[in-house]
Amino acid sequence: MSIREFPTLRRPFPESGDTATFGLDVSGVRVLVIVATYNEMDNLPDLVADTWAVLPAADILVIDDDSPDGTGRWCDEQSAQQPQLHCIHRSRKMGLGTAIMTGLKYAAANAYDYVVNMDADYSHHPGYLPLLLVGMNQDGQPSYDVLIGSRYTPGGGIRGWPFLRQLMSQGINVYSRWLLRLAPRDCSGGFRCYRTTALRCVDWDAIQSVGYAFQEEFLWRLKSAGARIGEVPIVFVNRSLGQSKIDLHESLSALAVIGRLGVRTWLGV
Q1: How far apart are CA 210 and CA 201, in angstroms?
Q2: Which spans in 145-269 are helix H?
Q3: d(C-alpha 240, C-alpha 16), whole Å
Q4: Which terminus in the chain has less CB density within 10 A, N or C?
């Protein structure tokens, strides 16, 4: 069965050049899907349902930054009925990077085998989740410690972004790959599966990024710790509901953090 053939998905799966297939056996494997939210009531209920449509045994952790639209309240109401849904409430907007760190630490502390980070707005479609999990192991052997759902590897793509935003995204990836000496084509992509054993190698206290630069910095730190990093193609679709959270300040902060880490990389310190 192809992941485009799931009849129960609430939102359509994006067409792509290749039809990804899977025979996913997660018996005895603990998977956590983490989603950082701020005002995502338009998307989160469908996202949770579609995640369980493709990964019925997975747990879902929502890290909500006091959303005024009731996202956190909805999570509390649902988790009272569904023990696979967990919620962490934060008192204010504290940055995407710190939200992801909270989720990754939760996964490691609670003995999950894999943790997947994805956006709440359907730019990362849950239909790709089995593809990421299958890709972590090939021929019965561990292949990667981190697998990125990549927009820029062959077969991947972007829909709904204006040309200027695509150009900026590609530019930040070239900038990151060169400065940080990273191999992946999509260093800024947030749709990732981590093997939780690899997270134990990270010095969490040393992480500088609180916002969007976390994605590049965390790859850099994992690579420095010897992690195996891979990519699989996905089609990224711009959100159709709700508002984007990135702004100019976040973008400039990300460039500054990557620049500082790049100096360390090239100086070997």
Answers
A1: 19
A2: 163-180, 196-199, 214-224, 248-267
A3: 18
A4: C
Cα 56 to Cα 201: distance, rounded to the nearest angstrom: 30
End-to-end CA distance of the chain: 49
Pure H helices in 110-247? 129-135, 163-180, 196-199, 214-224
- Cα 174 from Cα 186, distance rounded (Å): 9
Q: Which long-range contacts link 12-20 to residues 24+ away (Cβ below 8 Å)?
A: 13/125, 13/127, 14/125, 14/159, 14/235, 14/237, 15/235, 16/155, 16/156, 16/157, 16/233, 16/234, 16/235, 17/155, 18/155, 18/233, 20/128, 20/130, 20/131, 20/232
Q: How far is CA 97 from CA 1, 206, 209, 214, in A?
A: 35, 13, 6, 5
**Nearest CA to 168 among 83, 78, 248?**
248
Domains of the chain: 28-267 (3.90.550.10)
CB proximity list for 87: less than 8 A, separation 6 or greater: 61, 62, 64, 72, 75, 76, 79
Write the pLDDT tens digit of every residue in 105-157: 999 999 999 999 999 999 999 999 999 999 998 766 678 999 999 999 999 99
Highest mean pLDDT (candidates 15-24, 25-34, 93-102): 93-102
Instruction: Fill in the amino acid letter for 5.
Output: E
**For residue 204, what is the DSSP state?**
G
pTM of the model: 0.88
